[in-house]
Amino acid sequence: MLTEEGPRALIEAVYEPHYQHFGEYFGDTIAGFFSDEPSLDAPYIGPYGRDPGFYYRTVGQPGVALPWEDLILGKMESSGWSEYWLPALWYSHREHSPNVRLAYMDAVTGLWKRNFSYQLGDWCRSHNVMYIGHIIEDMGAHGRLGCSAGHFFRALAGQDMSGIDIVLHQVMPGMGQYQTAADISEGVADPEFFHYILAHLAASQARQTARMKGRAMCEVFGAFGWAEGLPCMKWLIDFLLVRGVNHFVPHAFTDFFPDEDCPPHFYAGGNDPQFESFSKLMKYTNRAAHLLYGTDMEAAGAILYHGEAEWMNGQGCMFSEKPAKICYDAHIPYDIVPVDSLLRAKAEAGKFMVGERSYGFLAVPSCRYLPEPFWQAAKSLKAAGVPVFFIDAAPMCPEELPGEVVELKKLADHIFSKRLAHDYHAGSALLRIARFDREDTSAFVLFNENPMPILESVRFPAEGKYLKMDLLNEVYEKAETKDGVVDVSLEPGESALFLWGGVEDQEMEAFPKECCWKERSEVCALWDIDLYEQGKAAGYSPFRCQSELINITGRQGNPQFSGKIRYRTSLDLKKAPLGLDLGRVGVSAKLSVNGHDLGWRIAAPYRWDISSYIKAGKNEIEIVAANTLANRIQDAFSRRMPIPPSGVLGPVYLLRTSEKQFEKEDIYG
User: Fold this and answer.
1) Are 476 and 443 contacting, i.e. CB atoms less than 8 angstroms apart?
2) Where are the beta strands (DSSP E) in 512-652?
């Protein structure tokens, strides 16, 4: 990747033949080329030191064979470091090692940027297609040489989209504060990295690089195992959307079933019970990404990318995810900004701009050494009145420190005290909030990453009429606030979009008022239950008559069942505004009332407004639930996830908008 000839050979062997055969489809059917996890692959060969592992090999480690190309020495010499200083790449020198290593890594990552990333990108753009992809980012590997490319931003600089991937249980619902078992690194995934920095790297680069036009891509879903049902997939999409990712590559598109490489693979030869409702997730993803793409995503401030600091300081460097976690849990939006971007920033009146992105402060993770270009940029920021916060301790500074030292744990309070970010007064750290602006419209995406329901008042920086939008189920309701305070209720994994502006008064009146289900009554019905083992049977077979709700794959059922579960019952009701909530479901469900198909729900809440479909008297209720293939195919990847129960677990409730307590005669005939 460091030579001009290497990527040129790749182009001649792969890219050019594709264009010769399919050139008429370039820019239409063929959108572009995808680099999947290219790396420098620095090996450990010893005999000195010890192997730090695939993810952690980098400069400053005895025994690690460092990437080399003859141009590197010339670039190092131009920085004042001759070949006699090369041993400092492995062994510490009391004062010069940091700058020798910086010069080497600047040369390596600069050559990758020019010869690999830009050479491929320029070829693609000259042939009317895009160049996208991602490196291995895991556990900070993006700034190292083992399985990655040494610098996240330089590695992808020639692309038309920034990119990451989330596979192998790197991100798990409800585990933002805990290490997750995963088939990576040493068997665990660090939540600070995957929850607080990974997606922000992609979103930040996409919005700081004019050519990328805000396009941030994630390869998603793959290698989670069959236990990854639609609720988990929808959770992952929301996890990324609220962090600014807006393009998605579902993984994987295999034609083979069963394929042990990377389930789930969606259709699975007609065997996947989730496939019928999978299109609902894809339509939601397209709808949400389309709405948010091209907007200005708010970032109150910036956090310095720690790549150069890690090269110079090794393990004595605080990573960017530390201040990122403090900010994100306090609902302070941020971008990650590398030194390269600081050098082209324009600063005035207490803010600095990188491209079209504006920031009100810069937070610098703790370290002893930083490169000279950083200090040049920091002095310019200080002169323009931009607050610069050095976390926990001041680095070695050539002159007066161009900022102030702030304790990590006090960073969020310090930002609020200086009025550098809006305080949403949201009590739950795991209620994620992102603001997206387009002309006179402000959209706020709220996502509950907490494994518990959230009910709290959120103070938005907006007033007046707004739309509350459930893009997944296409439910759009109007409401109004005079002081910006909105009561927000979200189930675990549920998201909502609140939209101010962009809607004319006449259009706003066409939307129904927000429906608040204020009372509920448990449905104590018995159900006829039938099973359809998808891919193995021709249709439904009776399972239980007049039964209570059970876990179909529990001890009372069939532990190896994968397919559809049909529930039928009758309810005598009065004609009234009513909703139906199925409670806990494993894992997706479709409701029919008196023969009217009300559609699928693929994540909590499993709730429908049934007011328009019921009649006075007897009402026929049918539910079809679908579980996953994890019960039939016990794949290796699924061992990292809890296997969901199957079917409708309940309790099932009838819902009512009235403040009046439910009484039997109010709803039942």
Assistant:
1) no
2) 519-522, 527-532, 541-547, 564-573, 579-581, 584-586, 588-593, 596-601, 607-609, 617-626, 647-650
pLDDT, tens only, 172-194: 998 888 888 888 877 889 999 99
Say if residues 503 and 629 touch (Cβ distance below 8 Å). no
**How many contiguous H segments (helices) and E segments (strands) does the chain have?**
17, 35
DSSP state of 87: G
pLDDT, position 661: 44
Could you read off the pLDDT of 479-506 as tens digits, one per residue? Answer: 999 999 999 999 999 999 999 999 999 9
Q: What is the pTM of this model?
A: 0.96
Q: Is the pLDDT of residue 50 over 90?
A: yes
Sorted by sequence, the CB contacts under 8 Å of residue 663 that are 6+ apart come out as none
Over the stretch 563-617, which tens digit does the pLDDT of each residue have?
A: 999 999 999 999 999 999 999 999 999 999 999 999 999 999 999 999 999 999 9
Number of residues assigned to the chain: 669
Please say whether the beta carbons of 407 and 393 come within 8 A: no
> Can you read off the two tokens belonging to residue 175?
């585990």
CA 667 to chain centre: 42
Give φ, ψ of 177 to 5 degrees. -110, 5
Measure the CA–CA gap between 407 and 413, rounded to whole angstroms.
Answer: 10
Long-range contacts of range 505-510, CB-CB < 8 Å, 24 or more positions apart? 505/465, 508/465, 508/467, 508/478, 509/478
- Nearest CA-CA partner of 144 in 66, 201, 88: 66
Cβ–Cβ < 8 Å for 390, 404: yes
Question: Alpha-carbon distance 357 to 591, whole Å?
Answer: 45
